[in-house]
Amino acid sequence: MLDKADKQPISDLTPNLTPHPQQTVAVLEHLSGPAIGTETLLYSADIGLALDAERCLTAFDPNGPNSEAGAGAGNLIVRLQRTDGTYHLDAADGPVWINGRQVKATELVHNDIIEFGEKGPLSRFQLIDRDAHSRRYFSDICADCWDYLQTSRKPIITRATLALGGGARRLFGETTILFRAGVIATLVLLALVTLQQNKLNSLQQQQLAASEEQLDRFAQNLARAQKDAITSDQLAEIREGLSRDVSTSLDRLSAIEERAMATETAIGKSAGSVVFLQGAYGFRDKASGQVMRYVVGPTGSPVAGPTGAPLLSLEGEGRIAERRFTGTGFAIADGTILVTNRHVAVPWDSDDNPLLSIGDRLEPFIIKFLVYSPDWTESREAELVMASDTADLALLRLTSGDNPLTPLTIAQDPIVRGRSVIVMGYPTGLRSMVARSGKAFVEELQQDGRADFWNVAQRLADKGFISPLSSYGIVAQVTPDFLVYDAATTQGGSGGPVLNSNGEVIAINAAILPGYDGSNFGVPVEKLNRLITEAGMTVPIASN
Hints:
Elements: H1 10-13, E1 24-30, E2 39-42, E3 46-51, E4 57-60, H2 67-72, E5 75-83, E6 86-91, E7 96-98, E8 101-103, E9 105-107, E10 112-116, E11 122-129, H3 138-151, H4 156-174, H5 177-225, H6 232-259, H7 261-270, E12 274-285, E13 293-294, E14 312-313, E15 323-332, E16 337-340, H8 342-345, E17 362-372, E18 380-387, E19 394-398, E20 420-425, H9 430-437, H10 439-448, H11 453-462, E21 469-478, E22 483-485, E23 497-499, E24 505-511, E25 520-524, H12 525-534
Antiparallel strand pairs: 1-2, 1-11, 3-4, 3-5, 5-6, 6-9, 7-8, 7-10, 10-11, 12-15, 12-17, 13-14, 15-16, 16-19, 17-18, 18-19, 20-21, 20-23, 21-22, 22-25, 23-24, 24-25
Helix pairs in contact: 3-4, 6-7, 6-9, 6-10, 9-11
């Protein structure tokens, strides 16, 4: 980039000097002082240079009639005499430094840096072709700043400050308008990029903080979920607390059985087809497949976060952070197909999981899905076949074991208000079955010390204590979307069959409103038939 510096020849400043006729001329490029960035062309064969009150060099002819007047403008610093294509310098009054070395007299060489006295400017001596030296480049300004920084005898901080300040003034004072516009545009663009980057960094920090908060919330939910697992300290409390609720249900069941032998028959025939569902799910990274785990310390114990909940990380080395759930299902079709609620088969859809709001990075997945039947002593595994998008229904398939279950029959007759219904399931999950198991079994669990979520279910199966509860009720309301009845149930009974007195499925138990009788909801069997058709299956239908 060319600059636009105006040249200031010595003949213009001092008209009394006689120009030298040679084509090659000497130039003083001023690197500091008030005239920084300008040039003084040395035409005459004999020149005196004095320093005026403003620290500017004044040139005059030392042999001319006005020599005393010229010298009076300031203190004579040096005298220059042309010889053999260059100039001979003699220091007159005050010290002069050439390339940082003080001299009295010397022959000047191209690119010598001259410092005129303690207060004078720093200038570069050059021998150039007169016609060729009309414009200067951006690189020349940078070179001048560098030469000043290297040659000046001032302290390094002062030198650096003056070099940078002088260079900046020259760049914006001597360069072309196009160059200055380009520099300003570059600075503005750099400022905008920096501002945008700061905004992005701030947004990333906010997202990271939000993700950490959501992760901590999920960890707290997991910690709360662990309370659902049965520990030795809780077994006695379970026995005392839940036995009262179970006794109420059992009393009500006794009343049902006393009122109608048909109902007893229906319960006995259907119990083996109603299964206890037990599962867990976690989260993993979609791209890498890494699973969310607990962060453990040197001793292998989980590390707690600021809120007291265990820390979770995709790089954790502890066990998988699993969210456990239970529910009820029943067999249809060929005995390997199970019906349950969508919120049981796809539990994260209805669960309060803050990790689901982090974004597209994580995805939930089933870690384990086990099925227990009253007729089995071992669990079997299941997988999702299809979940309805319009109703709280899902179909599962048994993936292990040889003997299928006895399928239940789907009712064909419409349901009307006032008809009696039987709801079967596993309300409160493991707790109700432990409470019904007897004192000896509870004591055995306490002594064994292995009362975790998975082990208790297997121990119940080993002892033959896997058995659904049944409750009797009356249909209060029938709508296209729900069947409303007052049969007692609670959490854990979701997905269980709602039967008529003949043992035929008329609805699937789905939801409750605690504390309000007659507020239990079931999904009508018509919606189940629709899902079965979508899945391409056929099931037994009750004859008229």
